């Protein structure tokens, strides 16, 4: 341990700690901008490029960046001298001199770390305004807009994309004043191997990277009298939406959200969790089929579109192992425009399906040509949790004051298994709850598979089914997924089933969720919320959902049967 004094407070910290870490342990705030410490992911953005966190170290002439300066025995640090404050303000003024001043109409207005810092440091004029770097906006993709005029070169996106996700799409190109974070050759995003996971957007401190905003499309649909507009909400939305209205992360707002969606004017308010149960019926049946008929193993879950795009690009020699199941919200779209349309006497052409998702890749996924029926998309528009909050604010709907309401039926009822899709490990846990009972003909008494929960990058469990040990693995974050897939390709792993979610933490940490600004405690609380909702459910196994049973009886026939296959399964492309 090393003894350090910061602003006259003493503390002993581990050798190798930085001044910033020691200050944090003492509850002393040092402002930062480029710094990002995602400890759940064991990932730190180490570039120390912004120099906002400079502090004075006794005996040293120069100011030191707190995030990149290791402590030493007897070190004496002061964080709040006028020299530090002036230096921070100067650095910020220089950054602002090359930054657009359109804060009032910026996508990140009131959610921008640069804006907050300018307020905190009391910057009231932009000194040294000179030439500004100009870059064309990249609006080529369905998911992400790149506006590099707003980039401050903090390189968080590069760390996220290259180190955590191992996709290597974004890095600095050109030099000096022309430096820009971009795909190689400055290609438009839609021409790259970007998975649209949106994790770069999630950590961008400004509006350099934002989502494609589909809110106007949804308003148009809601005010189009010909359209019957249906909405579905992903499992992870209900534990995060409240944050946009001042609630603690993890607060369950399921009932308030259903009420709010009705106030917005949706004709039917449904739940993607219902479709998650449907996915389990298909995925568990596919898994059982592969196990019993010597099919290809391990089976890989396929509900995360960023993960699907990742394996299509990076593991195109292994396209026969992922499950062929469409993702739950896509299954929902098909069922809405077939079964539900028939039941309600609606013309599918007039049905407009909106998905509220924690995810940016779902926007891209909804436009995939494989996910259409007669050229009509299964899902018409995807908005994120943040965009739903935006709509509610536009309509003056104060979420937290609403009385709880129920989802509509028949596509609104779900089991606890459907809910846990929202957290890493949840999909495979949900599948096990069903596959176990189908394969053994016994009741599964303990439905909680604790080994598959939590933030460990790769989790494993073995479940005994009919005397055979079934090996399960879970990975979240595409870097962890890559490690697992490489082991499988090299013949070093003998798993039977694997769940992969592209975003760290699973969908609760999706790129469309309220910004966590690097506070990993927020993800932990959202995860807790997910498992609480599961515990509170009377039905916790997908195959026991009465509306799912009815759907098969009335329309689909057998799980993994011919009709189900036609409507609910897909294929992958190189
Ligand atoms: Fe997800 Fe899924 S769990 S992918 O993480 O399988 O986005 O929440 O909606 O479709 O159900 C996201 C979440 C979501 C799908 C489901
Ligand atoms: Fe990389 Fe994901 Fe951002 Fe694409 S969306 S650039 S894969 S972090």
Kindly describe this structure.
It comes from Anaerobium acetethylicum. InterPro entries: 2Fe-2S_ferredoxin-like_sf, 2Fe-2S_ferredoxin-type, 4Fe4S_Fe-S-bd, 4Fe4S_Fe_S_CS, Cytosolic_Fe-S_CAF, Fe_hydrogenase, Fe_hydrogenase_lsu_C, Fe_hydrogenase_ssu. GO terms for molecular function: 2 iron, 2 sulfur cluster binding; 4 iron, 4 sulfur cluster binding; ferredoxin hydrogenase activity; iron ion binding. There is one protein chain. The chain has about 575 residues and is α/β, with parallel strands linked by helices. The chain has 3 domains: about 1-95, Ubiquitin-like (UB roll), CATH 3.10.20; about 140-210, Alpha-Beta Plaits, CATH 3.30.70; about 215-570, 3-Layer(aba) Sandwich (Rossmann fold). It has 18 helices and 21 strands. The chain has helices spanning about 20-25, 80-95, 115-120, 155-165, 200-205, 215-220, 255-265, 270-290, 305-315, 330-345, 360-365, 385-395, 415-420, 425-440, 480-490, 520-535, 545-555, 560-570; strands at about 1-5, 10-15, 35-40, 45, 55, 65, 75-80, 145, 170-175, 180, 210, 230-235, 270, 300, 350-355, 370-375, 375, 380-385, 460-465, 470-475, 495-500. α8 (about 270-290) packs across α10 and α8 (about 270-290) crosses α14. The mean pLDDT is about 95. The structure holds 2 iron/2 sulfur/5 carbonyl/2 water inorganic cluster and iron/sulfur cluster. The site of 2 iron/2 sulfur/5 carbonyl/2 water inorganic cluster has 20 residues, from α8 and α10.
